[in-house]
């Protein structure tokens, strides 16, 4: 028995080591954000938390419109997520539970769109934004991403497996219209799937970098990721300050993830194995 | 398409059901319309015009000029293009191979662990939901020459410091380290889910037959895991061939020393949005698409196996 016990300990030792490696960048970010750059650049470097976090935050706020860009990012991420959840689940429910002419053809088109890389559209998309007058506006980030094939596909799988046809029929007999059935039957039963899609969309939107970099031409109206990169460009030497900005930019994501972590991980792995 | 297309079961007794007019389905089409409208405006139309644009010269201001295959002819002679292609493929291998191997090892270990598995899962996954830009800045700071943590560690071991972000190989190591860090946990969870889907009886049967741990792994675990491995390889390919944020933040738009951090997507970004060479950028975009298709097809062949239709 002792031999299996030792093996168990060795196993956890390796797993904990991996955990420390994965966590290290976050810890080191906090250490950098709470010290001066000079402390970090000493040899050997300072490995403990310092008392300069407040100063660093002030430097960040002096150098970029941090709260404004965080506000922009929040507007984009929240509205994109809300629109995606609504449009994707509504379309997915329609595909999963109703028959109508052209259904299969439409679904095949939907699947095919998932194969196309985003860069293929970037240049003309920018021209479209120019024609619409959306260059520099947050609409250019929100509207094109308001519905996506992945989410529809993913929610459709869920609706097919989790909602019985009888339930839909019963709701119809009770006088629920199509949208009523969606709202009162489909949405409440799809909470876990919606939670996963919601976090996935929120994180993706919060972290989007290339498209905001292209389309948000006014330096005062950038998102957090673009603001961070300009902070890094312009003040590359003051790492403590830059890492403070990086830390602040991650906090909302960490909160969202912490709240929904279990559901999210369950959803992520299930989707992958089924898909 | 007409309404009759949906009538799949023949009516045996009664008269044929009354034909519904197509507009009676309007609610369904309305429910589906957001995606298709958005795709038409922001997906399909731009893609078609990218293809047209690839055969033109355009700086965004003057009139478009048709140049036939001119952009492509220039592309195949452009050393930067080949360099970016090589960098992308090298970075892809340098990051994907360690990522997937480490993920598989961790997943197998995590499967045999009994306690704290949820803690591990959540902690391993966190690198994947963090800010890419913030972490790219972080990795460029720890790889910085005079003050970076990596060099501090080397010096304390008596090894001379390296100019990580100033050397072609150093740039690639820094970028791929970041990609590995970010994606090992994600792939671990996916492999773990795949491992848990393998029927227990197969392992018991192997045990009865006297198969050792290594034999069991290569005869049962790995073959059963094949579809999941295919999934992770394809996802890594699509992601890896589109690497942009890491090099752009870590070494800048130039691609760094010797352009060794210049990926195809960074090259595309530069041509389109810094040089305003839209026709050329469109040709690069098409080559990225071709590259993704080629790699997906290759992976599909390798990991799906020949003649196996499962």
UniProtKB/TrEMBL annotation, chain A:
Give the GO terms filed under biological process for this record. Answer: transmembrane transport
Q: Which Pfam families match?
A: BPD_transp_1 (PF00528)
> Ranges for the ABC transmembrane type-1 domain?
70-260
What GO CC annotations are associated with the protein? plasma membrane
Q: Which PROSITE patterns match?
A: ABC_TM1
**Alphabetical keyword list:** Cell membrane, Membrane, Transmembrane, Transmembrane helix, Transport
Coiled-coil regions listed: none
User: What membrane topology is given?
Assistant: Multi-pass membrane protein
Where does the protein end up?
Cell membrane
Q: Which residues cross the membrane?
A: 9-31, 74-93, 105-123, 129-154, 193-214, 239-261
InterPro entries tied to this protein: MetI-like (IPR000515), MetI-like_sf (IPR035906)
Give the similarity note: Belongs to the binding-protein-dependent transport system permease family.
Q: What is this protein called?
A: Carbohydrate ABC transporter membrane protein 2 (CUT1 family)
UniProtKB/TrEMBL annotation, chain B:
Q: Which UniProt keywords apply?
A: Cell membrane, Membrane, Transmembrane, Transmembrane helix, Transport
Where's the ABC transmembrane type-1 domain? 85-299
Membrane-crossing ranges are 28-55, 89-110, 122-149, 169-193, 225-244, 278-300
What's one Pfam family the UniProt record gives for this protein? Answer: BPD_transp_1
Compartment(s) of residence: Cell membrane
The protein's matches in PROSITE patterns, at most eight in alphabetical order, are given as: ABC_TM1 (PS50928)
Membrane topology, record value: Multi-pass membrane protein
Superkingdom, natural source: Bacteria
Q: What is its main location?
A: membrane
Q: Name one GO biological process term.
A: transmembrane transport
Q: Show the GO cellular component annotation of the record.
A: plasma membrane
Family per record: Belongs to the binding-protein-dependent transport system permease family.
This protein's name: Carbohydrate ABC transporter membrane protein 1 (CUT1 family)
State the organism of origin: Kribbella jejuensis
Which lineage is the organism of this entry classified under, starting from the top rank?
A: Bacteria, Bacillati, Actinomycetota, Actinomycetes, Propionibacteriales
